[in-house]
Write a structure and sequence with these properties.
The protein has about 725 residues and is of the alpha+beta class. The protein has three domains: about 100 residues, Aldehyde Oxidoreductase, domain 3; about 325 residues, Aldehyde oxidase/xanthine dehydrogenase, molybdopterin binding domain (Aldehyde Oxidoreductase, domain 4); about 110 residues, Aldehyde Oxidoreductase, domain 4 (2-Layer Sandwich). Helix content is about 25%, strand content about 25%. It is built from 17 helices and 27 strands. The strands form seven sheets. A seven-stranded mixed beta sheet has the order 3-5-1-12-9-10-11, with helices on both faces. The longest helix is centred in the C-terminal third of the chain and has 21 residues. It is globular and about 80 Å long.
């Protein structure tokens, strides 16, 4: 039987992308196409008292100016519809005349050229009533703070709590108790192509939107909701997607493009500038985590208490779900008998926070691994040894009070990671390698290790499914296979993996497979390209559809067409009082070792080597996995060392790549070693686990542990800009 699984097959889209033949949303054109520009609020908190569009409408070349009055159901939101499509008078939504961050959209001008649209946009007159601004979630949650939504009576969106065991008793029995306060920053997604799209009326009279996103059917539902149109009158198609990382989970241009095409019955295109992109879409959540952990003399963690606060920004987006992950992961991949966590996510007038690779996991891992390092130091115990004594295993009970799903490989991943980093067992206990020698007096070297786990798939009771359709054609043998699947390929190579999996499932060579993807008119709902779920969920749906199609084929049905919806084991929500739940049906496991060199004269942190050990269950395409590991490490490196997104009173001070610096080839680690481990997931397709987010999670704590090893200074906040490093050194040295 032909097999494509486990082969490092070249990406199906590689040639078209490197030659420029592949079209991204910003490349699309149609005859009679109009161009659009958005008027952003530019104010962090203000009410629109008067909006005059007359001069803009009269400008040469303008076809229409759309405002809140034109949107039938002026609201949207992935988790809750709390954001107006347009802010201004005439909104059907309560509070729809209030801008809550600088990137709220006020109006869209559609004209025969982008230049005309931009000129007309600048003619719109607005009278604002500025409202009090609150930008710190710790202040926003206090009584008497300015409210973003007065009707809610609070800025706190949601709270979670975990009460597992008896924390006070655990601390009483602890030989050592350590405390820490950890802060993590905003981060910009910085995907290659800014938001762009083209909307038109298709041959069947539907409003079609070609745009980059992560969940075509969810985009379809939100567009239909805002326009009050039947779902089957909206069609969403994803062309090539220039990166996402969670940044395209929420709406940007989808609804307003659909509105314009629906109203004007002409094609309408928009392309955001980089500045518009940076202020107009969400960021990674900043977190504030206070932690207190206790352990006995043998290094067994007996109690963990955490207070977790996240900055949701102006609207909810996915903040409640991100908070759920952080609530679970702030105590790390460890079995701790007594856990108390109180967490909340809070509205502020900052740019909204939302999904970003790791989805609460990096923030939680930073605190958890920092606490493990503090305990190891207090007990004079090796960092690997203390982890080995506490990591989750098959049957381990987590803080939510339920067992881990079977197939836990955290002990094996930790062991391999330690070995790759130079640790050895001496008399049955792990001992770290010698500290790297400093090349010069001012260039100090150090090594750090961290581990993490993360869910695969939607969590906490969120409905989870994935649908695939397979068509088999031929006479005596299967000559052609067509897979219809809505799953988004955001650049991670998902569609190549889909082709490999369907070829293997049907038993044909890859050259007989065609993938028709990411079109709501041709495919069932796939769910989102997020939560490290797409390979896992799509693979199971593809396998089911292939088996059903093969059954029809054997019964002489030609062509054989079958659709299959995969549903994984159900998860449950956190109990509001205890946090008891079955939060996830599968996890991925990862460990990293980072070696750094710190220049004590300049404060620069340079990574010499990074090793990532990742259990992928079964490697569908090893080269693509290596690409995901290297990309995650580079992106995490920017988060920890370089990227410094600055808000001041609700205004973004770093809206350009000239002042928001992302890593170049000269900034990323000199070497990244990808170590792929394969412990099959019991319910994964071919045993595969999701893995795209996992390499991101332990990088910050591993790097910061390495910096401490190098210069003796512990950081509880990042990015480690030269100024921050030099300031800490100066403080440490008196």
């Amino acid at each position: 039987m032909a097999t494509s699984i486990r082969q490092s097959i070249s990406r199906l889209d590689a040639l078209g992308k490197v030659t420029g033949q592949t079209l991204y949303p910003g490349d699309l054109t149609m005859p009679g196409m109009l161009q659009a520009k958005i008027l952003f609020a530019g104010r962090p908190h203000a009410r629109v008292k008067r909006l005059d569009i007359a001069k803009a409408e009269a400008h040469a070349g303008v076809a229409a100016v759309f405002t809140a009055r034109d949107v039938p159901n002026n609201e949207y939101g992935l988790i809750m519809p709390d954001q107006p499509v347009f802010v201004g008078p005439g909104s059907a939504k309560v509070g729809g005349d209030v801008a809550r961050f600088i990137g709220d959209q006020v109006a869209m001008v559609v004209a025969d050229s982008e230049k005309a649209a931009a000129h007309a946009r600048d003619l719109i007159e607005i009278e604002w009533e500025d409202l009090p601004v609150v930008t710190d979630p710790r202040e926003a949650m206090k009584e008497g703070a300015p409210l973003l939504f007065p009707e809610k009576g609070t800025n706190v969106i949601t709270r979670y709590r975990i009460r597992h065991g008896d924390v006070e008793e655990g601390f009483a029995k602890s030989a050592v108790v350590v405390e820490g306060y950890y802060q993590t920053p905003h981060q910009e997604h910085a995907f290659l192509q800014p938001e762009a799209g083209l909307a038109y009326i298709d041959d069947e009279g539907r409003v079609a939107v070609q745009v980059a996103g992560q969940w075509a059917h969810e985009d379809q539902e939100q567009i239909a909701h805002a326009l009050k149109l039947p779902l089957d009158q909206i069609r969403v198609i994803y062309p090539a997607i220039g990166g996402a990382f969670g940044g395209r989970e929420d709406m940007s241009v989808q609804i307003v493009l659909a509105l314009a095409a629906w109203k004007l019955r002409r094609p309408v295109k928009i392309v955001w500038s980089r500045e518009e992109s940076i202020i107009g879409h969400h960021k990674r959540h900043p977190y504030f985590i206070r932690a207190k952990w206790g352990a006995d003399n043998n290094g067994k963690v007996l109690a963990a208490e955490c207070e977790v606060i996240s900055d949701a920004g102006a609207y909810a987006y996915t903040s409640t779900k991100v908070l759920g992950n952080a609530t679970l992961m702030c105590t790390g991949p460890y079995e701790i008998p007594n856990v108390k966590v109180d967490s909340c996510t809070v509205y502020t007038n900052n740019i909204p926070s939302g999904a970003f690779r790791g989805f609460g996991g990096p923030q939680g891992a930073f605190a958890a691994e920092g606490q493990m390092n503090k305990l190891a130091e207090a007990l004079s115990m090796d960092a690997v040894e203390i982890r080995a004594r506490n990591v989750v295993r098959d049957g381990s009970i987590i803080s939510a009070g339920t067992p881990m799903p079977s197939g836990v490989s955290m002990p094996q991943v930790l062991e391999r990671c330690a070995e790759e980093g130079g640790w050895k067992k001496v008399d049955g206990e792990w001992k770290r390698p010698p500290k790297p020698a400093a090349p010069t007096a001012n260039r100090k070297r150090g090594i750090g290790l961290a581990i993490a786990f993360k869910n695969v798939g939607f969590s906490f009771g969120a409905p989870e499914q994935c649908t695939a359709t397979v068509r088999l054609e031929g006479k005596g043998e299967i000559e052609h296979v067509t897979l219809y699947h809505a799953g988004a390929d955001c650049g991670q190579g998902a569609h190549t993996a889909f082709a490999q999996m369907v070829a293997d499932a049907v038993g044909v060579t890859l050259d007989r497979v065609q993938v028709i993807a990411s079109d709501t008119a041709t495919s069932g709902n796939s769910g989102s390209a997020s939560a490290s779920r797409m390979t896992f969920m799509a693979g199971n749906s593809i396998r089911g559809a292939a088996e059903a199609a093969l059954k029809k084929w054997k019964e002489e049905e030609r062509p054989a067409l079958a659709t299959y919806q995969y549903r994984p084991p159900k998860t449950t929500a956190l109990d509001p009082e205890t946090g008891h739940s079955n939060p996830n049906f599968s996890y991925g496991y990862v460990g990293e070792v980072v070696e750094v060199e710190v220049d004590t004269h300049t404060g620069h942190v340079h990574v010499i080597n990074a090793v990532c050990v990742d259990d992928v269950g079964h490697a569908v395409n090893p080269r693509q996995i290596e690409g995901q590991i290297e990309g995650a490490v580079a992106q995490a490196h920017g988060y920890v060392v370089l990227e410094n997104f600055v808000h001041q009173n609700g205004y973004a001070q770093t809206p350009y790549f000239s002042n928001y610096l992302i890593p170049t080839v000269l900034d990323v680690p000199d070497k990244v070693k990808s170590v792929i481990m394969e412990f099959p997931d019991p319910i994964g397709p071919w045993g595969a686990r999701g893995m795209a987010e996992m390499p991101y999670l332990p990088y910050a704590p591993a790097l910061i542990a390495a910096v401490k090893d190098a210069i003796g200074v512990e950081f509880h906040q990042f990015p480690l800009t030269p100024a921050r490093v030099l300031g800490a050194l100066k403080k440490a040295n008196g």
